[in-house]
Here is the input.
Amino acid sequence: MWLYRILTLILMFVNELRADLREDEISELVILGQCGHVCNIEKADDFIQISLGFMSKHKTRAKKVI
Here is the structure.
């Protein structure tokens, strides 16, 4: 029963997050399977690849300040 409650809470969180992200034009939701709360450590290679890809896609050139 406790596992069902945990899964229900996770799904509620993910669905709420998806609803919030629909309004953000550049956001992306990536769910790493078999991973807990510390995805940047548990799935470091995947996290880095996804993060760098996102930053590369959305990079802007800084304006020179005089």
User: Anything to note?
Assistant: Helices lie at 2-21, 39-42, 44-57. Residues 25-60 form one domain. The chain has three helices and no strands. The mean pLDDT is 77.
